[in-house]
Write a structure and sequence with these properties.
The chain crosses the membrane at residues 21-44, 50-71, 83-103, 115-148, 160-181. Keywords: Membrane, Transmembrane, Transmembrane helix. By secondary structure, this protein is α+β, with helices and mostly antiparallel strands. It folds into three domains: 2-195, no CATH class; 202-263; 267-380, Histidine kinase-like ATPase, C-terminal domain (Heat Shock Protein 90), CATH 3.30.565. It is 66% helix and 10% strand. The protein is built from twelve helices and five strands. It has helices at 2-5, 9-12, 14-41, 49-69, 79-100, 112-122, 129-152, 160-236, 242-263, 267-279, 300-310, 347-359, and strands at 283-286, 316-326, 331-340, 363-368, 372-380. It has a five-stranded mixed beta sheet, with helices on one face. The two termini are 25 Å apart. 35% of the residues are buried.
Length: 381
């Protein structure tokens, strides 16, 4: 549960976060339309047109902030963006209260609580459930204060308790719905990931066993092809020449390189070998310091998906991957350069992979020419 408190749908399911971005735009449009419609509905109660128009502008601003903040290009979504959007929506509710103070006859035609609740609900895929509840509770408290003020300066005959309940129930209900959605989707996603990881670990055990066999076969191949014939020749010779000594050193270095290649192989080398063999696309990895091993499990899928996609459907003729550490080892930079194939990918297609990468905190840049597609990922190690 402590982990779920800090996670959002965007973090545990980046693709789902990208797909949820249009929902924020829909919620923003509905909020703006609601504020305009209800302001026109109770225009006879408006005593300050300036405050009424200011309230609508606050709603539009809150929707714009929420929509832009949830764009895949601006991932990851942070809690301060949620609070900024909610603050603007609460500002709209305050402006509406000012515009009808002393003349507000009914509570059901006030858009403030509904707008705040809808915006919080639409941002549920990008916020933790605890932050959604906190934002809804604070907003409801502010609206309750406005309701207490309305009890003494309103045309309605309802008592303060009823005004507080009506003003707060929409915000609290929609915030609770958003929090329930966030908590549920994160819990279910984590459960699915744990199950998938268990399967992957079981399969990885078999892969690693195969790699060990491959390394052993490589050593046996070097021994049987080079070393054993040389030893047989030396044993049958009457004396060892300088050329034999040089050949012995050369064979020792060859065997050392075979052993080192097997030991220093990383998940990226294994991935490149697997994809290259399956897709018949040569993939070269330049990672002399085995820096790729420092990437965390949640940072690897964007690169894995990109390599798998680039190597399919004749999008690339070959792929080169360079891995290096920067900033004293705190940042891992991975350059992926794909030689364009007969079906060269477009910028918009590759940008989707960068959007998913940004959702998990990976920075990325893209450069496309007629000859190459170059993608750079920068990870915080």
């Amino acid at each position: 549960m402590s982990t779920a408190l800090r996670l959002t749908q965007q973090e545990v399911d980046p693709i789902g976060g990208v797909a949820a971005a249009p929902l924020v735009l829909i919620g923003s449009i509905l909020s703006a339309a609601t504020s305009i419609g209800l302001t026109a509905w109770h225009w006879s109660e408006v005593g300050s047109p300036v405050a009424a128009f200011a309230g609508i502008l606050f709603v539009v601003a809150a929707g714009a902030v929420a929509t832009v903040s949830a764009l895949p290009a601006r991932a990851p979504f942070t809690v301060d963006r949620l609070w900024f959007a909610v603050a603007l929506a609460v500002g709209a509710a305050i402006a509406e209260y000012v515009s009808t103070v002393g003349a507000n006859r009914y509570l059901y035609d006030d858009y403030g609580p509904l707008v705040v609740g809808v915006l919080i609900l639409s941002l549920a895929p990008f916020s933790t459930w605890i932050s959604l509840l906190a934002a809804g509770t604070v907003a409801a408290a502010v609206l309750a204060i406005l309701a207490i003020g309305s009890a003494g300066a309103s045309a309605t005959q309802a008592n303060a308790a009823a005004l507080i309940a009506v003003n707060s129930v929409a915000v609290l209900a929609l915030s609770a719905a958003g929090a329930a959605y966030s908590a549920t989707i994160v819990r279910e996603s984590l459960a699915w990931q744990r199950e998938a990881n268990a399967i992957a670990l079981e399969r990885d055990g078999g892969v690693r066993a195969g790699i060990v066999r491959s390394v052993q076969q490589g050593r046996v191949s070097v021994l049987s092809r080079e070393v054993l014939p040389f030893l047989a020749a030396v044993m049958s010779a009457e004396r060892i020449s300088v050329a034999d000594a040089d050949r012995a050193r050369e064979l020792a270095e060859m065997l050392r390189r075979a052993l080192k290649a097997g030991i220093e192989s990383t998940w990226l080398d294994d991935l490149a070998s697997s994809i290259g063999a399956a897709r018949q696309v040569p993939i070269a990895v330049d990672d002399p310091a085995a820096t790729a091993a420092r990437l965390r499990s949640e940072q690897r899928p964007p690169l894995t998906a990109l390599l798998s996609w680039l190597s399919s459907a004749e999008r690339s003729e070959s792929i080169r991957i360079a891995v290096a550490a920067e900033g004293g080892g705190e940042i891992v930079r991975i350059d992926v350069v794909a030689a364009a194939g007969s079906a060269s990918p477009s910028r918009r297609e590759v940008e989707r992979f960068l959007a998913v990468a940004r959702a998990v905190g990976v920075r990325g840049d893209l450069e496309i020419t007629r000859e190459n597609v170059r993608v750079e990922f920068r990870y915080d190690a």
